[in-house]
Each structure stands twice: as C-alpha cells, then as structure tokens.
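Writing this down once: the sequence line spells out the residues, with the fold written below as integer tokens. I am pasting one below:
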Amino acid sequence: MPVKRVHVSLIVFLLCCCFYPGYTLGGEKSAQEECGTDYRTELYCSREVKEIRGLYPGQQNLHVTCEKEELFKIGTTKVWRLSGHKAFFFEAGMAIDADGAPDTYHPDDIGRDHLANAGHHGNWRAIATHNGRPDSTPIIQGTDGPNPGYYVSVTALFDKTKARVDPRRYVNPNEIPYVVLPLGEHGDARLGDFCVAVNRKNGRLSHAIFADLGPAGQIGEGSTILAEALGINSDPKYGGTSDGVIYIVFPNSGNGNPRPLADINAASERLFEALGGMERVKACFSD
C-alpha cells in the first residue's frame, strides 16, 4: 500500500504546537501569550480584547443596561453611580501625577516635574517635611536614598510602617497605577480603595488604586504608569490628555494601605467583573 507524503511544513507546524503551546500559524501570538500574566502586558490588555481572543468564553453575547443616577458634580464633570451598586464612575481627561517617585522634585527644579507643582516654601503640598507640616523644612534625600539631593516626594496614601524620611513610604507612580481624586470631593471612597480606568480612544484598561489627593474642583488624574498602561503620554510636565478616560471607583474596597500590584490587579478585576465588566462600560458610555 503506498504511503502518502506529508508536507514538511505541516510536520513542523504540528511539532511547534506540541512543544510550544503559544505558537500559531504565521508566527502570531496566542491570546494567552499576548495578554499574559506579566503586569505590564496585563495592563495593556482590556477585557474586551480578551473576549475577542477567547479568554472569557461564553460571555460575548452578554447584554447589560446602565441604570445610573448622578451622585455629584465637579466642575462640568458629572459623577454617576449605578443603581444597586456602591461603585461610582465618571469620564474626564488625565493629568499626570508623578508624586511619590524619588526623582520627581529637586531644589534646582531639575526633577521630572515642575517644582511649583509641589508647592513652595511655607506650603509644601507634595514634599515631606521634618515635622510633617507643610510650613516646615522639606526633606532632601541623603546618600542612602535612591536619588540623593532630590526632595522626598509624598502621596496621600503611605506605608505607616516606614519613616517619613524614607521615599519607600510613599506610592511610587512609576511602579503602581494609581488614581487621584480631588480633596474633599471623592464621595465614599477612601485612600487605598480599588479602581479601574479605561481609555475610550483605544480600549485599553488598567486596574488601579486610589492613592493621592488633588486640588478641589479638579478631577481626572493618574500616575505615570497608569498613563502608560492606557497609552497616554506619561510625561508629568507635558503629557496627559484632555478627555476620553473613564474612571470607576469602588468605595470601601481597600484597607487604607498601599498594596502590591498583584493585589490591586486581582481585587479590582474581581470588582470590575461583578459590576458587569466592559459590557457595563459600553452601556454607560454608549455615545
């Protein structure tokens, strides 16, 4: 009986599939490989994209509605709450916050951000001082600091187990995606609560934590790595975007402390899915 010839390329493809599960015809990455578990990749891969690629099977036809009520208003931005849910959400731009990074502010104004954004002598808003009061002497990192000569930049959320002079006490915006809400105008949310941010312009999604307070009357701000995850220019001086970012905040979901990135991703993903995920976002921002 004659033996049928098997094309060599088919054999190679089958071997690749067996020994390299992420391999697909044409060299394209599989959904699992592209979305992955690495946090930088995961931040770039929205749930909508995951659904298209089969990571959430059986949920593509899920239909949800958006029964929302206006919670409060900041400037011209309306903040909404879904009926029956604690979470609130709004759409705004994104200013870039670099507070908490050890190289953000310098006495000679050569840091990543303008020194004026940290305040001034007699009223330091974003720099640690020796007695913790804004009118005290600002703390400059010594030779044992990550950036000697730079000021110690602070965030409203901090690790209470570390000293005021330790830059690691504060939430590093280059490592942790965090959201900034205006002072005295953040509803029931507390520092340390979990959040989700979505860029409407490209569909990118990122999990985040509420870690800093901004000026009253202004809303729409996030850390440098949050901006990067959403595909937004993350330069504290010249970056950001004027519109198109959806913020979802889950009040009373945190414990009032900074959290590792893995905890932020896991908790906010669970809360986001319970809220209805990307289908809910589409329903609430269908215009």
